[in-house]
Design a protein that fits this description.
binds calcium ion; four-stranded mixed beta sheet; nine-stranded mixed beta sheet; alpha+beta; binds ligand 0WD
């Protein structure tokens, strides 16, 4: 795909390798991008390693990533899974929901049910990559048979396993000025696993959320309930309970430059038309945003919100977003369909705006950086990559620490024959 989400022609055989990112091969010798870090992130427990290769950092300066758009293969859905109202995992699509077109003058009150019909997921439980790992184990023989055919080196046939949400954070990093991140990386049987670690700042923000902010977080889920039906022929049920334990997640495979990626992301709903395309092209992302009343608000929407929306949906190949614009009282004043392929056109008149190519090149080069740093193949070793706005990405190394995130059941399950 190119940055507009279009298939790139020619060749018609796909999007493979015809626009190679020439800088990939020169990563380790580019002094502007990789440079020694004099202030490595000090986390607790104390890092064990300070070898020469650990004294390196990755710059996030936008200008460094203004290069041709890297190869990004059309994402292919390789499976899906569901989490039920009690957050139990199922290796099937039982939680998929169907999109129902909203009326032209919707009468949606996003505050309805917040007090009496809302079951909130317990987000103090850190699930890390567990659901994806469960899916991998349940589909191990299917994945491994693809590898046997391709005879590539990692046991799973992919270089990176992670959540889509973690990749979204990487894509938006060159433009992020407020929130840093921590990503734990472990190399196991040739595949790199990336799992987010909550930062101190994020933990404090969660703790200090105002009642108003907590309620507004519900509004997005309530909007989904107004637009989604549980089966093909049903209608939405705005009188029902909103339970954020429930989720339907797609698992997609794709390739960014020379990184084969396998990731999962939560999908809100699918098109229910008889002519709807195959997944992920049939999926629709639902969003809410404050109503836009001034040119300044429109500009901010383009510059900040559309960056996040684009990154999140472009990654798994979800082609459209249905956005609900709401007033300060949580009443939806209108809805709009936004095609991911049109976003780069929508933003092109904004001064000093974000660029899709910067996002994708940064992500690709971050993954290359991680691969040069993480050499030891062991579930007991975690490299913790750390980034704060206006800083470089740095890292620390932790052996047998509380950062380990590949559970024994996964390590053992991957070791045993199928
Ligand atoms: O605990 C964590 N730090 C994370 C949990 C980080 C990343 C993901 N997850 C879990 C989520 O609970 C969810 O089940 O993974 C699943 C979704 O993964 P994703 O698709 O990679 O995440 P992302 O793209 O950030 O979010 C997609 C949707 C959100 O939709 P909006 O329109 O708001 O972007 O997943 C939901 C949310 O509906 N979601 C969550 N729901 C409950 N708790 C959470 C969360 N912490 N994060 C995302
Ligand atoms: Ca959503």
């Amino acid at each position: 795909m190119d940055q507009h989400g279009r298939k790139v022609n020619p060749p018609p055989s796909g999007y493979k390798n015809h626009r190679r990112n020439m800088d990939n091969d020169t990563l380790s010798v580019n002094p502007k991008r990789f440079r020694p870090s004099h202030s490595p992130h000090r986390a607790d427990p104390a890092p064990l390693s300070s070898s020469a290769s650990s004294c390196r950092a990755l710059s996030t300066r936008r200008q460094l990533y203004e290069k041709p758009f890297p190869v990004y293969k059309q994402p292919v859905e390789v499976g899906s899974f569901s989490l039920d109202s009690e957050r139990r995992f199922f290796n099937d699509a039982r939680q998929i929901r169907y999109f129902v077109e909203p009326p032209s003058r919707p009468d949606f009150n996003l505050r309805d049910g917040y007090k009496d019909r809302f079951v909130k997921r317990d987000d103090s439980i850190k699930e890390k990559l567990d659901h994806i790992l469960r899916w991998i184990l349940a589909n191990k023989s299917k994945l491994e048979s693809r590898v046997a055919a391709a005879s590539s080196s990692p046991a799973l046939g992919v270089d990176v396993v992670t959540w889509r949400g973690h990749l979204t954070k990487l894509l938006t990093t060159p433009y992020e000025t407020r929130e840093g991140w921590l990503l734990a990386a472990t190399l196991f049987r040739g595949t790199l696993y990336l799992s987010e670690v909550e930062t101190e700042a994020s933990r404090r923000d969660t703790e200090n959320r105002t009642e108003r902010h907590q309620e507004m977080m519900y509004w997005g889920y309530k909007f989904e309930q107004y637009l989604c039906a549980e089966d093909m022929k049903a209608s939405p049920d705005p009188g029902g309970v909103v339970n954020t334990n429930e989720a339907f997640c797609t698992v997609v495979q794709t390739k960014l430059a020379d990184h084969k990626l396998l990731f999962s992301g939560e999908v809100d709903c699918r098109d229910r038309g008889t002519k709807s395309p195959a997944a992920p092209a049939c999926y629709i992302e639902l969003k809410t945003s404050a109503e836009i009343c001034t040119p300044k608000q429109r500009s901010n929407f383009h510059r900040f919100k559309l960056l996040k929306w684009w990154a999140q949906s472009f990654l798994p190949g979800v082609p459209r977003i249905v956005a609900g614009f709401r007033d300060p009282d949580g009443l939806v004043v209108g809805t709009e369909t936004i095609h991911i392929s049109q976003i780069s056109h929508l933003i092109k008149n904004e001064y000093n705006c974000w660029k899709p190519t910067v996002c994708m090149n940064f992500c690709s080069e971050f993954l290359s950086f991680v691969r040069t740093v993480v050499r030891e193949d062991s579930p007991r070793v975690v490299h913790l990559f750390s980034w704060d706005p206006h800083q470089d990405v740095t890292y620390t190394v932790h052996r047998d620490s509380s950062y380990c995130f590949l559970p024994p059941w996964y390590v053992e399950g991957m070791g045993s024959p199928h």
